[in-house]
Amino acid sequence: MAFLNLHKGKLKENFDYLKDIFEEENISWGVVSKLFCGNRTYLNELISLGVREIHDSRISNLAKVKEIEPSVQTVYIKPASKRNIPKMVKYADVSLNSELTTIKWISEEAVNQNKKHKIIIMVETGDLREGVMGDHLIDFYAKIFDLPNIEIVGLGTNLNCLNGVMPSADKLIQLSLYKQIIELKFNKKIPWVSAGTSVTIPLLLHKQLPKGVNHFRVGETLYFGVDLFEEKVIEGMNGDVFELFAEIIEMQEKPMLPSGSLAANPQGEVIEIDESLYGKSSYRAILDIGLLDVDPKYLIAEDGELEILGASSDMIILNLGLNPKNYKVGDTVKFGLKYMGALSIMNSSYVDKKISS
């Protein structure tokens, strides 16, 4: 049976690496846990590292964090829907917001629950996902800073999440300037400029991060050690915290081309025939995992000679060529994972989740 393995020692090494660089620059940070999809075993591992702030886009996942360790500060990182606000206020200490109406609802619910709810106002800086337009930010703040049971703790932004716009010193300086303007105009302190996600870490490593940025929200670089500017593993970090193991459930020598009249497959694809492959055969392996669990484009075979030919809902097909390594039925094939691949597998109840040292 296919299973996902988390190397807790490598996760700790990545955590310690980030902890050291943030402490050196006096930057606060929280860990984005949405990759774990609420898996309690993995959340326990995360909290055991000493994480004191956890961010997630699912309220149910934050509820599990509070069950495991109530003292961890929880942060809800997408705009809340109206019907979810009572649960969000109950389980999230902080939320990222950019809608005036929503913040008013949060204020009303925080009063009902007799809680103080903290808010990071998200500001649009070019990627065109969530965020208040900069020209409207002062008026926006004026309408919410004195709402009951609401505390504004930061200005934040997201980059590279929709259109691929990368962070730059200029964009982050602008966000810091907004903070200074608001503080002077309203005589209020805003503790955080939360402009840092994994994609911003290379600016920090290359000493290009504006001094005003003092809060990060980190997921991908923690779990994959990746520099998202150069798409490579950062020296001193691990890119293989997660590994997928899939079992070979059939192995046959077969023709390299299908035979018969061709139509679209269940994924809507029509196979193109390479006439140079007529009459040729190779060993093909079927794995016990499929599109229901992960898109093969997010898998990285440890054996670079393997070729992923395609997938159906429950099976992935490999081309082994002449099978020089003598794979056989019952063997497992190991894959590294890209972020979206790990996210899909974590969300699949059909793939076991394990931990190793």
Automatic annotation (TrEMBL):
SUPFAM superfamilies listed in its UniProt record: PLP-binding barrel
Keywords, sorted A to Z: Isomerase, Pyridoxal phosphate
Superkingdom field: Bacteria
Essential cofactor(s): pyridoxal 5'-phosphate
InterPro entries named among the record's database cross-references: Ala_racemase (IPR000821), Ala_racemase_N (IPR001608), PLP-binding_barrel (IPR029066)
Chloroplast listed as a keyword: no
A cellular component annotation (GO) from this entry: cytosol
GO molecular function: alanine racemase activity; pyridoxal phosphate binding
Residue span(s) of domain Alanine racemase N-terminal: 9-224
Protein name as it appears in the record: Predicted amino acid racemase
Organism from which the protein derives: Belliella pelovolcani
